[in-house]
Amino acid sequence: MAEQEQLVKKKGKTNSAVWKYFGFKKSDVEQNKVQCRICYTVVSAPHANTTNLFNHLKCNHKVQYDQAITHNKKQTKVMPPRLHPPHHHSHRLRTHFTVQRPKRRARRDTEILQGFKQLVNTLDKRYAMPFRHYFSRSALPALYDKCRGEVERDVAASADYFATTTDLWSSRTMEPYISLTIHYIDADFNLKTKCLQTAFFLKTTRGKTSPMD
């Protein structure tokens, strides 16, 4: 029987213990054909997917399969713990996402989009993204109440004389809205502008009573 060509390790980082039992021929520079180190069978593993590798061990090399499974379970146990409330770092991240959402007019389901979740996972693998209902039912209403309270206190303390304007505008989806804005000068002679309310402007109200009345 001809001597088999020596197999080399897979290039780059490998996260699975199964690669201990597979390699590539030295002559296979592009590493296109994965071979079993035990029986030298070529196993299909597109894009370095390990499913077929595990299946090969399970069907042909039970001892090595059990070893690979056990090692993978140990790796899972030592993964860094995910952050949960009320950890201060987790709280800062949630607050940042909450503030940015209305500023960017983000959709309420942004946090469940796969790309966004991958970005967050890259920034901090320990952070557990809250469910979308956390933002729509808790975080955003709390942010609204906080902002409204600050505006009320500022206006009550400084706006002895003021002017108001109304603006009719359309969203990116061409939905009509009307906003009421107050303008005043504070004690330090700084011009202040605050939006007091924005309401959906129904077509049936045009030319009639303002929806803010």
UniProtKB/TrEMBL annotation:
Question: What GO molecular functions are on record for this protein?
Answer: DNA binding; zinc ion binding
Q: What is this protein called?
A: BED-type domain-containing protein
InterPro entries in the cross-refs:
Znf_BED, ZnF_BED_domain_contain, Znf_C2H2_sf
Query: Origin organism of this chain?
Result: Dissostichus mawsoni (Antarctic cod)
The cross-references to Pfam families, in alphabetical order and at most eight, read:
zf-BED
Q: Tell me the ranges covered by the BED-type domain, including all copies.
A: 13-68
What residue stretch is flagged as signal peptide? none
**Which of UniProt's keywords are assigned here?**
Metal-binding, Transcription, Transcription regulation, Zinc, Zinc-finger
